[in-house]
Amino acid sequence: MMELDVVEESRRFLTGYLDGKECGYEVIHPWRKDVRYIIMHSLRVHAYAVKIAENQPTRLSEGDRIILEAAAILHDIGKHKIKKGHAYVSTEVVQNWLKDNPGISEKIGNTDKLLRVIEGHSDKDHPESEICSAILKDADILDEIGVLSIFMTSNRLDRTSPFFFNELLERTETFEVDYCLEHMNKLNTEYGRKLLRDKMDFIEKFSRQLSLELEGTEEVYESLR
After folding, report:
1. 116 and 171 fall within a common domain
2. Is 120 helix (H, G, I), strand (E, B) or coil?
3. How would you classify residue 60: left for phi > 0, otherwise alpha for psi between -120 and 50, otherwise beta?
4. What pTM was computed for the model?
5. Which of 3, 6, 149, 160 lies 20 to 30 A from 195 at CA?
6. How far is CA 203 from CA 4, 49, 147, 159, 180, in A?
7. What is the CA radius of gyration of the chain?
8. pLDDT exceeds cutoff 80 at 192
9. Cα torsion 154, 79, 14, 43: sign
């Protein structure tokens, strides 16, 4: 008999549970209206969590690694119902899944810790000493910053405006880097901070390049907008 793979079972549960469900609240970005976006976000967070764990000064135990990866995959599974407070809904969904699947619970071992990590992942404002929670929070913060955040900030602009690119430059210069700095202070791991510095470098390079490509339009933009 093949050994139970908790990570693969978590992925299977995430996709199966959300299949056919709908987002129950208003969203700004159209791609978030489809619950499959929760799946894509969760898998990206899992990838970040694995990268951070692999670059920790102290290697995670096998038990903590399993808990971290399962929590990263399942942390937003209840977000289709509500946005604020979704961590508690996700915890309840995962708790019921574990009750129905004793083999998975046995393989995880410390299921209480898994549930605590999921339940606490939205509280980003306080330093985190527990390693699984620290990594998950950092991984969650890192998603949607960088290339993705430039697309997201552009979605807030009027794409029919003749000043679209000038407005994108202005928003990138006045918002994106400050947003990164704000979240830098919320990160718990050194490798998480390294990844965010890399993203900031990209955003700043993007901004400089866009500014170069818009040369000659600055005065007209200021006078006509």
Report:
1. no
2. coil
3. beta
4. 0.94
5. 6
6. 41, 22, 8, 20, 10
7. 20
8. yes
9. positive
